[in-house]
């Protein structure tokens, strides 16, 4: 599995954990760790939804 595929998997799994089944995601790989990518996806999802009911 290539790095780009792993990043897509991290993003997809993170969205599914948040019960998001449909989303438009644009990602730019600048070498972030997977835990950082996950945190950024979570933050973006919560901000887009206007939610403060965090599922950490």
TrEMBL record:
A Pfam family of this chain: ACP
Keyword Cytoplasm: yes
Keywords: Cytoplasm, Lyase, Phosphoprotein
InterPro entries assigned to the protein according to its UniProt record, in alphabetical order: Mal_deCO2ase/Cit_lyase_ACP (IPR023439)
GO MF entries: lyase activity
GO cellular component: cytoplasm
Localization terms from the record: Cytoplasm
UniProt-recorded name of the protein: Citrate lyase acyl carrier protein
Source organism phylogeny: Bacteria, Bacillati, Bacillota, Clostridia, Eubacteriales
